[in-house]
Give the backbone structure.
Amino acid sequence: MKKIALITSGGDAPGMNACVRAVVKTCLGKGIVPIGYCDGYSGMIENRFISLVSDDVVNIIQRGGTILGTARNDEFRTEDGRAKAIKNLKVEGINGLVCIGGDGSFRGARALSSEMDIPVIAIPGTIDNDIFGTDRTIGFDTAMNTVVDAVDKIKDTAGSHHRIFLVEVMGRDAGFIALETAIASGAASVLIPEERSNIKLLAEDLKSQNKRRSNSIVIVAEGDDAGGVKEIYEKLLPLMDGYTLRYSILGHVQRGGRPSAFDRILATRMGVFSVELLLEGKSDVMIGSNGDALHTLPIEDAVNAAAMPRLENLQVIKALKTVR
Ligand code: ADP
């Protein structure tokens, strides 16, 4: 194994840089040349890359985003697009590829791997945590902390004005961020795509929990079946008998920021492991975490099964409801 290529792909996530650092340092320590393609699969198709040296990864463990850049690329979805990428990998003499990204990136990695003989290792990096086969993805912990910090601030103003706030968090297809941050921020209720939402029941629930018209938070995943947060607000308002309601969309702030210690550690361990796996001759596997332990599973399995948040946590939120 002489040269390993590395990409960050799809949505960026805090901790990707910590992972890049770990892959680069592990490669250099083992006499392997690490190269980073810029902007995910786009750089691979357009042959834009950096030969990475120690200095490139100094002081990046604490930085959000990704120094390699990331992108979404439709050409890579075609066999012709991937053929260009494979040609570039071959000309450069790449012996292994590490792909840090979400499930879309893994579908790309899977397709690429079936069309070439270069081994591929996938590392789950997405704030959404919506990847089967791992209990944590790189970036999820940081995103949750960002949400909790923002909701704490919203609660200050909500309490002062005796308002109920709907707070929309990221999660187009999955309620991981919403469900766990609802617990961590002491929310009155949570709406997630995995559960049918009933706005009438939500109104009754909020009124009964909030008799003194103080403050309540409802966390709403952006992909909830009742609509976007504005739509939910408009449906809820007429049912709230004069309670004051506001909504807030946290948006892209959830993607950025310094990675948490948890994400740095997870990213670093996965990065080191990816190089070890390539040296052991492994291919087509994704690294997952199960508590403190890392394991592997076929990328195929990871992309073909849906990841589910812990729905029993809905009961945890219900159990804490009080009639005030
Ligand atoms: P994420 O990795 O965060 O889920 P995307 O779904 O946007 O992000 O995927 C990132 C990139 O992976 C896409 O822009 C595309 O280039 C590639 N990709 C996604 N799905 C496929 C697929 N089925 N076949 C080939 N490439 C894909």
Summary: The mean pLDDT is 95. The pocket of adenosine-5'-diphosphate is lined by residues 9-11, 41, 72-73, 76-77, 101-105, 107-108, 111, 126 (CB under 6 Å). Residues 96 and 118 are 6 Å apart (CA to CA). The two ends are 64 Å apart (CA to CA).
